[in-house]
Amino acid sequence: MTAPPIASVLVVDDEPDLRTLYELTLLREGHEVTSAPDLEQAREWLAQKHFDVLITDMRLPDGLGLELLRELAASQRTEKSIVITAHGSAENAVEALKLGAFDYLTKPVDLKQLRAAVTAALQSQRHPPAAMLDRTAAARHPDDRLNALALSSSPLPPAGVRSLQRIVGSAPSIVQIKSRIEKVATSMAPVLIMGESGTGKELVARAVHECSHRASGPFVAVNCGAIPENLIEAEFFGARKGAYTGATQDREGYFQAAKGGTLFLDEIGDLPIAMQAKLLRVIQERRVRPLGGVQESAVDVRLVSATHRDLSALVQTSQFRQDLFYRLNVIELRTPALRERREDLPDLARALMRRICKESGQPAPELSDRALSWLQTRALPGNVRELENLLQRALALSSGDAIEPSDFGDLESAPPDVPADTATQTLSAQPASSPDTSPPPVDIPNDLQTYLDEQERQVLLKALRECDYNRTAAAARLGLNLRQMRYRIQRLGLNISDDNDGA
């Protein structure tokens, strides 16, 4: 007995040999395949039935395959489209993705990639394949098929639901970005996340991954600005043994590590110009060659990038390649600054406090109305990251059951009823200190938070050593209680046993 088809696929190509090759490849996979040599025949098939996947060549005798994509979008059809473009035709590929294509393939088509693209397109659908629906609907009535399709839609995967819940807020900008994440997750199109530092760009990138059919695959996050330039190629593409001094064995790169999942390139604007050219080639060819290697291997990753910099301006000054920007910016998501959604601050502060306390194993204190009002007066140029740092500080300094404005410590802040910018003006109006009594620091650190953490770490270790690592005594020496001392030790990653609490 013949097994029922897995899915229904329409192949549109004007070259008979290629069309037959695609048909045979997909038939062997168990799919039901229909073919058409041009747009006219393809439209006739689409008018007669629903397909799960449409595979179309870009150039056809009577027009462009993009016309089919526009028509499918206008009719709100659910077919997933895969476009076949000529080798090196970057503009057509990007245009197809912007029109809603799930993916694209370049000629000559690798049949393994063709099979993988169809499988991924089917996995990305949130309803059963058409072939399955045809069998169930036929048992009732032919006209019931569209109803069955609508009723069979399933919700987001559990990981996707959780990831969207972690994006806290109900401001219009947050509602919009959550909606867009759900839509773009079912595609292979590259995503570029723009936004100021501290606005949660990695949180959005994880949500794109976890709402997609790749949620079970790896999510590999890379900070492009943190990799030494002489190692960046090996880090991205891998390296063979002996490729450079210290390469004692073969190692995989980020692209190989993210196979079947999502590669998140954070701070893409900091990528050196030489590496930008190599990254562009990998995106276009979907193949990588490890450093010191001779063979290329196919890569199967969804690319998501992020930056706080204005890439358009960097393109104008030749600091960022225009063609790479064009390839990365197929779908743009913008994370709003905290000042643009002040109504979300109370809910966001409470959610952050719960998370901080959960990570440190502490009960979460309440944030008093006065504390929330105080936070509303802050400019918070560091956005959510700055808000999180303020809450961590308040938690460490607090000794009561609720966080009050005084728990935020000596932060050059105004009282709750004075706007932060007014406080700044008041402070700047004070007479300057004499250079003899208040000398400026000799060196200004590049990363203030890291610098302050290191200073705090050294002070804590000195106090602990002088108190024979008795944490209660060291806390008293520093004017802290034991809970505050434990929190600081945990936050800074100091390896001090709880047995040393002492009396």
From TrEMBL:
Biased composition (Polar residues): 422-436
Keyword set includes Transcription: yes
A Pfam cross-reference name: Sigma54_activat
UniProt entry tagged with the keyword Transcription: yes
Entry-annotated residues carrying 4-aspartylphosphate: D57
Domain Sigma-54 factor interaction, chain residue ranges per copy: 167-396
UniProt entry keywords in alphabetical sequence: ATP-binding, Nucleotide-binding, Phosphoprotein, Transcription, Transcription regulation
Domain Response regulatory: 8-122
Positions of the UniProt region annotated as Disordered: 406-447
Protein name: Two-component system response regulator PilR (NtrC family)
Species the sequence originates in: Hydrogenophaga palleronii
